[in-house]
């Protein structure tokens, strides 16, 4: 479905340098949670909530946590062991339906140098699965600056797989959905290598899942890097 006028082809600008398409031996290239910790508020991320389907897609689960003395929600997250700086980063994802319960995200970050920025390639949150949020966070001057775009699409993004990507350059970042540009920022761009992160969570990591809410799923077909 053509949402915008000009479609971006990463191979017209870059070469493919990384492609995770089969998800075999996932632990060799991905960690199960953020390297600085896997607990936030009412959520704990566990490798047991990460699986691979018979047709070679990663599935990240959102569920109630059955372990005593731990947060109420148990969810799936994967973090690339490799780091990257500049290029085009893309994942084909089927996000969970919304309803102010689930928070699906594809983002980039370096936990050791967090003040230098965070690129949220897409966040799906709120009560309408037609909305996507695209954000750059920056703490470089000691204050938290946020530049963010929200886009309402004509389709429910949870009904099928969609491509979410960013073209990250020294002086700008362009965000894309299904190959079409949806948002851009210029100046004060992160210059450090970052890990790629995919996760499902509860809304703002605060909402506590009820039995009727879960299990819920976020599926990832592939992740590709072009440089």
Please characterize this protein's 3D structure.
- The protein has 227 residues and is mainly beta.
- It has one domain (25-226): Sandwich (Jelly Rolls), CATH 2.60.120.200.
- It has strands at residues 16-20, 30-31, 39-40, 43-45, 50-52, 58-64, 73-75, 77-80, 87-94, 102-109, 118-124, 131-138, 145-152, 162-168, 172-177, 180-186, 195-202, 216-226.
- The strands form two sheets. Strands 1, 3, 4, 5, 6, 7, 9, 14, 15, 16 and 18 form an eleven-stranded mixed sheet that branches. A seven-stranded antiparallel sheet has the order 2-8-17-10-11-12-13, with no helix packed on it.
- It is globular, with a radius of gyration of 17 Å.
Output the keywords:
227 residues, 7-stranded antiparallel β-sheet, Jelly Rolls, 0% helix, mainly beta
CATH architecture type: Sandwich
The profile of the biggest β sheet is: 11 strands, mixed
Domain unit count? 1
Q: Radius of gyration, rounded?
A: 17 Å
E-strand count = 18
Q: Number of DSSP helices?
A: 0
**Oligomeric state as shown:** single chain
Order of helices and strands: EEEEEEEEEEEEEEEEEE
Question: What is the distance, rounded to the nearest whole angstrom, between the alpha carbons of the first and last residues?
Answer: 27 Å
Helix content: under 10%
In CATH terms, what is the fold-level topology? Jelly Rolls
Mind telling me the CATH class? Mainly Beta
% residues in beta strands: over 45%
Structural class: mainly beta
Poorly predicted runs are none
- The coarse silhouette is globular
Average pLDDT for all residues: 91
